[in-house]
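Hi support team,

I submitted a single chain yesterday and got back a structure, but I'm not sure I'm reading the token output correctly. Could someone confirm the output below corresponds to the sequence I sent? I've pasted both exactly as they appear in my results page.

Thanks,
R.
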Amino acid sequence: MTPIPDRALAEALALATDLFARLATATADPPGVTRASYGEGEMIAQRILTEAAQGLGLDVTTDAIGTLRMVLPGRDRSLPAVVMGSHLDSVPHGGNFDGAAGPIIGVAIAAALRAMGHVPQRDLLILGIRAEEMCWFPAHYLGSRALFGLLPKQAPDTLRRVDTGRTLAEHMADQGLDPTPIREGRALLDPAHIACFIEPHIEQGPVLVEEGFPVAVVSGIRGSLRYPQAKALGAHAHAGAVPRRHRRDAAMATVRLIATLDDRWARLESAGADLVCTTGILATDPAHHTSTKIPGVVRFSLDIRSLDAALLAELDGWLTEEAARIGAARGVSFDFGPPTHAAPALMDPGLRALLMRSAAAAGVPAREMASGAGHDCATFAGLGVPSVMLFLRNEHGSHNPDEALDMADVGAGLAVLVPAVREKLA
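Hi R., thanks for writing in. Yes, this is the structure output for that exact sequence:
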């Protein structure tokens, strides 16, 4: 693999450092940043990236649904493009790097190629994708699925942003965008015209920090079995007056179900299964609960993730059976509510090998690992596009204002990605 001149890598890192700093300042919402999906912060991020891309001489456009497209033109523009990017929205008061690392590093790679005087054989297309964070609109991978015509056709008029109560179509109209392609199920990007998709992203857990690796090549993105609005229905009663045999205690039943899931998780994990389980919401009704009342209603969530689609399907059926068994024993009924499942996405073996080979050539320590979080890359992989992610070491996790991506690790990521992208562009 041909080495990249130090000067080109230095120029790319300087640009990325500047863009991260500008983005943090412009979208600050103490204690972190806020870039709401189809909101002001996301638009500010697009303007900052647009200015940088135009300064490099890239072709910059925005499509009907608001996807930012930045193109380093190739010699033969009829060839399928190498596509990079990620989302520009954030969670409320979140960190500056989750998502934004993708398009910023993509633009920095274009800067490195320009500095080398390299004109690629095919286009490099860098995307600033809209609306990936589910905290704003209740739909996973909203922007990337919309890009390929995969959202339900009614989505613009039925999806409402959590903080405003207004529809996706209304928020799009505020920005002069057109929801018609979504309503028609029309793709704005053809998978057949994509040679591969590469998404740089911060790691959102502690593994790289703990093990001392600056980067990791992602082996796959875990699928999810999600029930965000589950509830147990029993009966409110006096805490002191009702014997155990007569109780319909929703809290005890819910705790039993969660504990049973945790036991199953431990057994599966010890047998080598890829699995994580979370109950992020667990609450009695504050309008009715008190320390002297048996709770009749408990609301909770279940989020189960794995690279193994068959295991997720098996656990889905098992949960239904366990809920029925526990409910019958305790006089409680479980209603899991509407699911929001996502399929696992395995990364392309050839691209994984390319990034590991590039890391070795650059002298950058790297390992492979699964992604527990969902990413737009899963949409591309699900369409059969050869796809891969590169994680960058990041302290303090993500979805919080303490995200800490060291620019030296951005430099390591560039040292891996620039030669790999140049090879795929040839």
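A quick pointer for reading it: The domain at 224-335 is CATH 3.30.70.360 (Alpha-Beta Plaits). Let us know if anything else looks off.

Best,
Support desk
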